[in-house]
Amino acid sequence: MRVHAIKAFDDNYIWAIETNNNDTVIIVDPGEAKPVQQWLEQNNKRIDTILVTHHHYDHTGGIAELVAQSPCPVIGPDNPDIQTLTQTVTEGDELTLGGVQWQIVTTPGHTLDHISFYTPGFLFCGDTLFSGGCGRMFEGTPGQFTHSLLKLRQLPGETRVFCAHEYTQANVNFALKVEPDNAVLQGYAEKVRMLREQDQITLPSTLQLELAINPFLRFDQKSVIKAAVEHAGSVKNTPEDVFYTIRQWKDNA
After folding, report:
1. Which residues contact 199 (CB under 8 A, 6 or more apart)?
2. Fewer CB within 10 Å, N side or C side of the chain?
3. Lowest mean pLDDT among 21-25, 114-118, 183-187, 216-220
């Protein structure tokens, strides 16, 4: 598979996935139609299927226009707010798209309806997991969010993480506040700084890297627990409480 990033809004990425069909692509989370239409025209492609991770407008706003122009299946979570869906999926469901077998992972936390799409080597996780960070907890609970992240942690380390926003620099800057002595994080932060100075994309990341640098995946590490306790004064030593403390810290940073 080959995956292409289509920039949208200020910092969104819409993903175009090429499989073994040279004429069509799978589009993930098209919040805007125009950038997708331009990319399709420039690359002589058409849409096979649209995948949706959750209901937020910056992930769904372009679907209706794209489907009106070129009808195709739209697959996403069971949420009536996503009015363009032709098929709903949930945990344990499997899809065959473009000759590739996909697994659905429910990942609530950012929103209650959030799902992620996984095939070996590739994870499309919307706003659940970012490089160096995670989505804000708009609808879910700390327990739900940590459970979602624990499921993603179990995927193979070589899995490439295709999230939906270019938030990496801000995320690693915050992560350094949590783990200032993390040498892997220090090196990654410098790499990210250089990429962003050249207006280059920082994605995809890998799960192996995220496990080494992302405080929202490292909520059971002593260094992250220590930072949470020092920040909040008192934190129960449970994954959801450490996660919630770090999440609130970043929200208010």
Report:
1. none
2. C
3. 21-25
